Amino acid sequence: MKDSHHNSDKPISDELINAFIDHQITNEDRLELLSHIKQDDTLAKRICEMKQLKELTQHAFADIPAPPRNSEQVRSAFPRLAAAIAIFSLGLLLGIVGIYSSQHSPASLLASAAQQVQTRVLVHLTSADPASALNTLANLQQLLDEYQHNQQSVMVEVIANGDAVQLLSSTSPAIAQRIAELTSQYDNLSFAACKNTIDQMRITRGLNLELLPQVKLIDSGVVQVIQRQRDGWTYIRG
Amino acid sequence: MAKNLLSLLLLGLLVNPVFAATERIVYHVHHTDDGSFRRVISNLENLQQGMSDQQLEIKLLLQGNSIQLLDPKRHASALQQRFNTLLASGIGVEVEREYLNKNPQLKNAGVQLQVLDSLFGRIIELQNQGYLYITP
Q: Are B30 and A132 within 8 A, CB to CB?
């Protein structure tokens, strides 16, 4: 082999040598480099040393286990999966709340809480039919007895407007007697008559109704009906 | 990603039966005048037609002598047929025990009845369960 003196116009870079070792060199460059190798022992030695170093490096790392497959992908997917589960669960929870709410109106929900202590019932009379009124009073007594028997608390208010105010006056003796009996027996039962209706009857029909002593006067029956329902009272038309 | 999350939220909501939209109604009758039966039938038909996009669960509560509305002999055949159609659609009928005993012929009127000891108590119970209350 000739000595290391070569007559190359340009120096042979390590990059070119590595490309030659990795077979990533053009044929033209390869032939030129081989020509240099034949003329330059130092270059040949240099190439051998670099090739040997590469092979030693590859051999040293040959048994390193491969990293877990898609580990980075799993790590990046976990937050999204957790968010998806949370959102789905939120949807289920909202639906469950919706089911419960649909079965219990807000007023009744509040009333239910209060009903652990007391049930409040509003009975609204609008008709002056005595038979219907007596039947309503009978139902009221059944209700009061039932709650008393079950040791549950209930408050009942009877509100009359329209023609029904006549039932709560001295013009209906049978009704008056029943009201007197019931109010003496049940202190959780009350009666109220609409002042607006009474005034209107006096003006339009010339009726001067004398309310029963157990009946209190309220300004407006319909306003009372609305306010009671807003406050969570159960509403029944009598 | 936002679209996927929104889709999941909607899916969670949709799997719940609340979106089947069942409306529960207690219809309370306590009058027995001649127009009562016609009004009851018209009201119930209007409810079913007007809320046809929802499932309806209707309970017809007959107070006192309004139980006589169940007597087919009291009504014109056309009205009775409409009433039978309503009953066949699943409307439940509930009556007071005292008044059923006063009208024993109605026990065999071909209508399945639930008998109540306290009608007002039943109305309270149903409203507490979320039934909407209506009366003609």
A: yes
